[in-house]
């Protein structure tokens, strides 16, 4: 791996802080946790990890090459399907910073295996990795449909539109309650509405809500 000295470049990235496409990691000690970050970035437009950087932006440097191997283990052993990541090291004021680039996945979701080896998909919102909802999973599933496919409009769709107009924002469970529709059916309905840009998901107070797209 080529070591590149570019203090200015890393400092510029650090000044951006943590955001939807960038995360700081002081150290890599748990491959499964890193797999969640890889999943979130791969499912949300891609991003990068800066390893050896504290949350406050202070350059600490990586402690050993083991951290590079743990990144590779996270991407290959704890992500389903496996993810190809690009790693590069930079020397900043005598300390080595590892940059891990994760590209957006062509086929989603990318899942991370939890402690029980169950696959769970994550998305990136601001500077957090958030567990994807069943609606997100259906959106990704529906995205494989042909672009010319049509959205059927029945009483179920009308009830959902009326409920969202009346209540403005509803959780998945609330949508099911007001529309008297099963959770599985509602996930399909919301996924189609999101795909056709009629509805947008809103993350607020660590809860996902759904609202009509005002645009």
Note down, in words, how this protein is organized.
The protein is an alpha+beta fold and 215 residues long. It has 7 helices and 12 strands. It has a 5-stranded mixed sheet with strand order 1-5-6-3-2, with helices on both faces. Strands 4-7-8-9 form a 4-stranded antiparallel sheet. Strands 10-12-11 form a 3-stranded antiparallel sheet. Helix 2 (31-43) links the parallel strand 2 and strand 3. The chain starts with a strand and ends with a strand. The model has no long low-confidence stretch (mean pLDDT 92).
How would you briefly describe this protein structure?
The protein contains seven helices and twelve strands.
> Overall 3D geometry?
elongated
Counted up, domains total 2
SSE run: EHEHEHEEEEEEHHEHHEE
Count of alpha/pi helices:
7
Number of strands: 12
| Spatial sequence of strands, sheet with the most strands | 1-5-6-3-2
Question: What are the key terms here?
Answer:
5-stranded mixed β-sheet; 12 strands; 2 domains; alpha+beta; 4-stranded antiparallel β-sheet; Methyltransferase, Cobalt-precorrin-4 Transmethylase, Domain 2; 7 helices; Arc Repressor Mutant, subunit A; 215 residues
